[in-house]
Amino acid sequence: QVQLVESGGGSVQAGGSLRLSCAASGVTASSPFRAWFRQAPGKECEGVAAIWTGGVVTYYADSVKGRFTISQDNAKNTVYLDMNSLKPEDTAMYYCAAGGTYGTWYRLRALDYNTWGQGTQVTVSS
Q1: Count of beta carbons in the 10 Å neighbourhood of residue 81
Q2: In DSSP terms, which residues pair with 126 in a beta bridge?
Q3: CA dihedral of 8, 12, 15, 19, whole degrees rounded to 10
Q4: 81-126 pLDDT, tens digit each
Q5: Is the distance from CB of 72 to CB of 55 less than 8 angstroms?
């Protein structure tokens, strides 16, 4: 069983930056894909970014392209989300997820992932 723990959330001013971390424990070899999702109150869960840890291939939602970067440190079993030029609309609970398949992981669909972290809150003020 893979367990995920997010950290790094907080409150920042618009235009600021944050780095989120997702540390994995357990049998990580069974979960080669990692993704970040976010959900704001009253809104649907939105896929933000995904990474194939075996080949360092990444995908991003259109809403964050050019501003967010997903990366990994395999030695630490950790995936990061570097968020720059933050906007108030980026305010949400951010979740790290593991799972996916080779044919669907890049579609950033929540239904394709089966292991989730507890979430970390990101609040961006104007």
Answers
A1: 27
A2: none
A3: -10
A4: 999 999 999 999 999 999 888 899 999 999 999 999 999 999 999 9
A5: no
Give the closest residue to 81 by CA, choosing from 97, 70, 94, 67.
70
Question: Long-range pairs for 58-67 at CB < 8 Å and ≥24 separation?
Answer: 59/106, 59/108, 61/108, 64/90
pLDDT of residue 74: 84
Structure confidence by residue, pLDDT tens digits, 47-80: 999 999 888 899 999 999 999 999 999 888 899 9
CB within 8 A of 34, min separation 6: which ones? 22, 24, 50, 51, 53, 70, 72, 79, 96, 97, 98
Instruction: Quote the CA–CA distance of 67 and 74 in Å, as a whole number.
Output: 23
H or E element that contains 123: strand 120-125
- Per the document, the length of the chain is 126
Distance CA 3, CA 112 (A): 17
